[in-house]
């Protein structure tokens, strides 16, 4: 089954999980399409072999390294298999917790104890749990504008109100954050959570500066909200170091940090982790779904712990960094070569995404529609915003799933489409 033809829930606006921007529109696109190994889409209303710059999925060719296959066989044929198929301890499979605590401490210079970390079924599970446990229906959650579209869904599922804080090239604008939070407090509203994607942000590719992180921590302590740091792209850095995490900068106070195997191994494992104060982790361990179902995905957790034991994951991450860096470079040079001079874009230092700013005479929906007719799919900006109209002159390009030639061709076609989509300015 491909990621685009999974049967999803019954709500027509949520027919499939997607990290792209327009759930209902994309559900339509996707229900009629399949993604091939080459990252090309085929389906109703699309040119044959559509080049997909749409989904922020890992390259399908990277999903099953031989060492992961070996680890699967090893776990299934060992006496561990019955443990792996049993309910897991609520906090998660211990061997995986140990692997993660060691890696995070080594790389981030932290002193996490095992009680600071919990295995989760991907970042999605952690965000959902934190939304449920740290906010109440009608409560306010702060997010970046733009932000990850499916996080918007989760917070809305919990009937939380979203307030968005604009970003610039350094990330969330802290002055705006302070003004909004102060205003909310003066009207008797106390936001409980700030959700942020600090590194190689989805959809913009921007990395939040350290100065801004420190300022956000100061505001979290002053106004008493939890920072939820969704750091799923941290390991996919192309230029060396990544700024210190919120958790490191705040000495673990009022921060929960989330990571995932979805971007650096395989999203189908449905495996990630979160770390925070022992109290925060305990709260998640004590919650109903964890108590009822036990720790997340024990079979996958045993396999991944086995895979990680011999350093295979770290080697795989190095391979992914060079693969995606090369694609990022191809995309940036094609943008330089083909884009009209009044189009702007970000220069991500890691991750999967480039964010385009269109001139006011060009609307993202027009570009998206025309591009699809010409065989290129990409995400229009609206769905990434709490207030969709803020995205009507933006596009997100994902370079993670397309072959280099297709990235260059797709961007050349996109540049022509943008020229054609110009509306006459009044
Ligand atoms: C910022 C962000 N968070 C979370 C996810 C989903 O992660 P997971 O598969 O671990 O639930 C994505 C995937 O696109 C993402 O971009």
Assign the CATH class of the largest domain.
Answer: Alpha Beta
Please, how many helices?
Answer: 15
Proportion of residues in helical segments: 40-55%
Enumerate the distinct ligands.
pyridoxal-5'-phosphate
Low-pLDDT ranges: 1-18, 22-36
Please give the alpha-carbon distance between the first and last residues.
Answer: 48 Å
Q: Could you tell me the mean pLDDT?
A: 90
Side-by-side strand order of the widest sheet: 4-11-10-9-8-5-6-7
Total number of β-strand segments?
16
Structural class: alpha/beta
What composes the largest sheet? 8 strands, mixed
CATH superfamily of the largest domain: Type I PLP-dependent aspartate aminotransferase-like (Major domain)
CATH architecture of the largest domain: 3-Layer(aba) Sandwich
Radius of gyration based on Cα positions: 21 Å
What does the overall shape look like? globular
Question: What fold name goes in the CATH topology slot of the largest domain?
Answer: Aspartate Aminotransferase, domain 2
Percent in strands: 15-25%
Provide a concise account of the structure shown.
The protein is an alpha/beta fold and about 425 residues long. The chain has helices spanning about 25-30, 65-75, 80-85, 95-110, 120-135, 150-155, 175-185, 210-225, 245-250, 280-285, 290-295, 300-310, 310-340, 365-375, 405-420, and strands at about 35, 40-45, 50, 115-120, 140-145, 160-170, 170, 195, 225-230, 255-260, 270-275, 345, 355, 375, 380, 395-400. A hairpin with a 7-residue loop joins strand 12 and strand 13.
